[in-house]
Give the backbone structure.
Amino acid sequence: MRRPTRREIAVQNCQMLDRQAQFRLAADVVTAALADVPDVEAVTLIGSAARPLWREVPRFEPFRHWGIPIWHECKDVDLAVWLDRLNRLHTLNRARSVALHQLFKERQIGVAHHQVEIFILQGEANAYCGRLCPFSQCPKGKRECLVPECGRDPFLQQHAGFTFWPDALAPDKIMLLFDRRRGILRRASETPAAGQDDHGATG
């Protein structure tokens, strides 16, 4: 297997940064849509889309074969969303889908609705409730719907064995985008996508 050239490595790194930038734009449009739902108290971007990328050997070839590290690949957008009630999750689901459809229509940036993970939290204790279900009805009759407690609140999805770690909300790992009292606080897309060679976090 041929070893990638420096130019090919540089192209891959640029693609990873472009992907992060697109995901940050998706986070902004979904946040703006969620802000129109009165039940939403706050929205925060978490995960790898929220912080500088780090270098790692990817799973795809030929970089894996040669052990060549490139910038981490953001696979989705993770939003932590605080709600004061859980009885209108279908409204949030639709808001997410409409916002992403509009993003593609206006900017030709394709981010699927299931690529925007919405983690539902409540209260100052950041109590984790579950994730916003990506399906159009609840229950959908899928294997995912068989997880205990899934759908107890309609469109509140549960994942077997999943734990939402408090460290995910560490100040240096997040971008606070919206607060009900103060409105839109920042736009993730205004922070340039970047990598940091000494950034040791993973996720």
